Amino acid sequence: MNKTLIISNAEPTVCDKLTKLGYKLIYTECVDGFISYEQKHADMQCIVVENKVFVLSQCNDLYNKLIDQNFDVIKTEKPAGAKYPKNILLNAKIVGKNLIGKIDSLDKGLVNFCIGNGYNLIDVNQGYAACSILKVADNAIITSDDSIYKALKNSEIDVLKICSGYIKLAGAKREEDGFIGGASVNLGDSVLFFGDIKKHPDYKSIVEFCLNKGVNVILIEKTPLTDIGGAVLLNISQ
After folding, report:
1. How far apart, in whole angstroms, are the C-alpha atoms of residue 130 and residue 128?
2. CA-based, 20 to 30 A from 193: which of 9, 84, 142, 168?
3. Whole-Å CA distances, 128 to 61, 92, 205
């Protein structure tokens, strides 16, 4: 299995931590049309389903990096637009055999691939689904978003609802809150938070929820919990 991640280089402390954990990093590119603080977000540029990596059609540099390393890459049918909801073609979350997102705004190729491979489509009002969801396990997530919580609370997926706020949004010029999915990455048997999750009011509930799912918590002390667009784990056998 690969230990490779697609991630923004916006926060060197996060990248250094992942490198020390043994991960090879592929950096996202800058999508000029996006809002400044979204331009390098991994959860805007790509998503992994089965053995495929879906990438925005305008992300040629990222596409070429992945092709050079022999990943199976599919470009979106159309380029993402600059403004919401045309910018969220790939902003969805795979949790078990479920695709969670604002389905009618997602890339049709991605949606059709998921349908063809037996995935359940879970439609939510939150277009930034990948940003808003921390996948803890194939049957468990953490979110602060009401629409995601309501859509999943009666499903097979366990949901821990946390309070919003307390997460810095890297690059934002004014006080805007980041999301828990953008401030973390699931590494399989552990979750790395991009900063000191102990400062979050729901820290104890978050840790307990993760441990109950057999997932350890790793944090970066003395660093504000920061949304940099998450990271996409290329856990694909080659």
Report:
1. 6
2. 84
3. 23, 7, 23
Pairwise CA distance, residues 51 & 33, whole Å: 29
Instruction: For residue 137, count other CB atoms closer than 10 A to its CB.
Output: 20
pLDDT for residue 172: 82
Tokens of 183: 């401030």
Instruction: Give residue 238's pLDDT band: very low, low, confident or very high (50, 70, 90).
Output: very low
Residue 237 has pLDDT above 90, yes or no: no
The whole-angstrom separation of Cα 201 and Cα 195 is 14
pTM of the model as a whole: 0.96
